[in-house]
Amino acid sequence: MPRLRVIVDGPRTGQDNMYWDESLLDAFRPDDDPILRVYRWWPPAVSFGYNQKEADFDPEAVAQRGYGIVRRPTGGRAILHADEITYCVVGASPSELFGATLHSTYMKINEGLVAFLRDLGLQPEISSGEAPHEMRGSLCFKSAGQHEIRVQGRKIVGSAQRRKAGVFLQHGSILTGPAHADLVECLIPERRTISKEQLLALTTDLGQLLGKTLTGEDQDALAKKLVDAFARTFGLEPDVMRFGSMGAEG
Fold this sequence. Notes:
Blueprint lengths: L2 E6 L5 H14 L7 E5 L5 E4 L10 H6 L3 E4 L7 E3 L2 E9 L9 H18 L4 E3 L22 E3 L2 E11 L2 E9 L20 H7 L3 H5 L5 H19 L2 E6 L8
Parallel strand pairs: 1-2, 1-11, 3-4
Antiparallel strand pairs: 2-6, 3-5, 6-10, 7-8, 8-9, 9-10
Helix pairs in contact: 3-6
């Protein structure tokens, strides 16, 4: 029976996290069972899209905050990975499960994300896209592009995808707290087109929606619920390998 191979990982550096995601993609073959990796980042790190410029970021501001900085293997725009759960799905496309296009793959993975949020008692919606001028921005969470997920009209999940030779990698951030807004202070001044307060007004997070500050134990429980939602949505038996606690280090 096909399985969902699950890696529940501990917090890792930005370089390690992107190395492992890209390694999973490189090793994957179209007839392999799909993979779900769930992880966090320590220390927090700025990641920027494959086609973005590292020069958009202020290295002194990043270093002063103790953050890492890393280029993602996927496209999309910059994210500060701090208060969040990160997911990575690697699979085959074209395939019966994920379809043949970028759109069909996004929408199948969105089914799992939406099921997870509904399991928490929330009412998510999928964005139909953003205004053309927003597409030129530097910050992922400034606007909701096509396929991205909002709750109460505010973005909560940002995702990006890479496809090659019949396989794909999609990873994304599920916000659990407000720390992502500190990304604004990590940009060079001419790229700061929005304030932290304005960014927070456009986004929401699980801590805010659930009415509590999420602890490491809460993160562990949410990771399990995320795995359960994906396995149920994909109709696959999860085969879980646990590499460490989801709680933050340091």
